[in-house]
Amino acid sequence: MTPLDAFRDELRPLAVAAANGSPEPPAVAADLVARARRFGDPATLACALVTLGHAHQHVGALADAQAAFRAAVPLYAQAGDEHASVEAQVELGYSHYAAGEYPRALATWLDSLEQVRERRDLHHGTRVYLGVGKVYYALEDFGSALRYHELALQLVRGLDSPKLCCEVLINIAGDAYRQQHFDRAQRALAEAAELLAGPVSNHVWEAEVESYLGLIHFARGEYPAAREKLDHAFAIHQENQNLWGKSHVLLALGRTHARLGELERAEACLTSADELAGQARLDNVSRQAAELLADLAQRRGDFAAALRYCKRVHALVAGEHAAPPALHLGRQVTERLRRGVLRLRMEHARRRLQSTSGAKG
């Protein structure tokens, strides 16, 4: 075995774990990149860079994640691996999305969609439409988000990709939950849970399933059941050290404890949620936590603390207003999406006809 082969054997399981939501710390991944550079093999270096991108994204260092994913794209192309090059570009889009850079995310995905169309690549086409649905979700157009995600589900049903199917199902659950279509959300979560109990391994998604179930219980006024599910979700995120997940679940737990009259636990959860959200630059979570902490302070008669939290809310809201205005999908972008959807549907129909003809033969 050559030194390059030995390094690849070491890198491969770490890359798979990173892609499935459990990366090594960024320092470890950066060392892998430094070692990969010494071999001068573009595919190996690209794989290490994507692994580093996932590691940075896991801890909220999104600019560093984007730089790593962006650097991997041409290296994979240089190595002749167009599939992996598109995958890295799709991940770059997701990193822009996580940073709230929705125009950049859409532009990245639409660029990759041109390659997807040429290669008749339904797998990455599905991932692109999954991402487009996420953008609509972020814009609070949950109906459009659900339509794109249901389209993604139609496409992925024809592929042998339980991992991608699981990801789509969890996003459908989120869309349906926000529209209070709880039965649809629970069906999607049940199917996702079956996949996670079988061929799919992803701790982030395991926690998301538990978290959405907890949120549904909360929406129905079933607060003890909500607390149980959210506690389980937090335990998974804690073990996996997922900053984004912990901050969101702690916010939901704070609300739940408050409804149950467990005010000290509520305050502890919300304070932790605010701290973690600050580390991950999740201003929306920080604002909601501060609003709830102000309410708790008023309820216990600590008006000085309530005023401090109210000032924090106003500061966070002012920061949101100072940010660029929310993305509105222009006519040109909408038309590109429409054409892309049509092409993917035609390719999906073509494959179904081929499989039907083969079965008859």
Describe, in plain words, how this protein is organized in 3D.
By secondary structure, this protein is an all-alpha fold. Among the domains are: about 1-120, Alpha Horseshoe (Serine Threonine Protein Phosphatase 5, Tetratricopeptide repeat); about 235-325, Serine Threonine Protein Phosphatase 5, Tetratricopeptide repeat (Alpha Horseshoe), CATH 1.25.40.10. It is built from 17 helices and no strands. It has helices at about 5-20, 25-35, 40-60, 60-80, 80-100, 100-120, 120-140, 140-155, 160-180, 180-195, 205-220, 225-240, 245-260, 265-280, 285-300, 305-320, 330-360. Helix 6 (about 100-120) packs antiparallel against helix 7 and helix 6 (about 100-120) packs parallel to helix 17 (about 330-360). The relative contact order is 0.06. The model has no long low-confidence stretch (mean pLDDT about 90).
